[in-house]
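INFO batch 0412 | record 1 of 1 | parsing
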Amino acid sequence: MLTLQVAAVAYLIGSIPFSFLVARAFGVGDVRRVGSGNVGATNVLRSAGRVAGVLAFLLDAGKGAAAAALAGRLAPGEPLAAALAAVLAVVGHMYPVWLRFQGGKGVSTGLGAFAPLVPQAAAGAVVAFALVAVLTRFVSLGSIAGAFALVGLAYAGRGVSPVVIAAAATAALVVLRHRSNLRRILAGTERRLGSAKE
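INFO prediction complete | emitting C-alpha cells
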C-alpha cells in the first residue's frame, strides 16, 4: 500500500509542468504550440533561449530527483518503491494531468530520477548523450543513447534489480516518445543542433 502511495505522489511531482511554466515566464505563451510542440527543456531552449532552457532542464531533473529521494524517505529499505517512483515521475512528466496528459519526453526528469539511485550509471548516461549528440548533432539520438547507456551501466553495476528494471522501462518510454524524431531522422528532416533554424 505504501509503495502505491509513493508511486502516486511521484507521478504528481513528475506532472509539475516546469518547462511549460518556464517558457511562459520567458514570454512563450504555450510551448506546446511552438517549435517541436514538446514540453521539455530542448524546446524551451529553442523557443525561449539558453537561460530558459537550462532552467527548465534543472527544474525537470530536480523533480525527478525529488520524487526518488522522497520515496527513499517514505519507504526506506524498499528498493521497489524508489524504482517505481523514478518511473512514475517520468510518466508524470510525459503525461501530466495538469496539461491534459500532453507532456515532454522524459529525458531530463529520468536523469534526475535515477541520479540518486544509480549515480555512476547516470553519469555514464550523460557522457553517452553528449558524445552522440555532438557527433550526430541530433539531441533525440543522444537522448536515446543516454537512456540505453543508463540501463546497461546500471545492469553492469547491480545485475537484475528493481532499479535496473525501472531504468529499462524508462528507456522504453523514452524511445516511444522519440518515435517521431526517429522517423524524421530516417526522412532527413530532423533538426540538428546548430542548424540555421536553431
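INFO post-check: The longest helix spans residues 50-74.
INFO record closed
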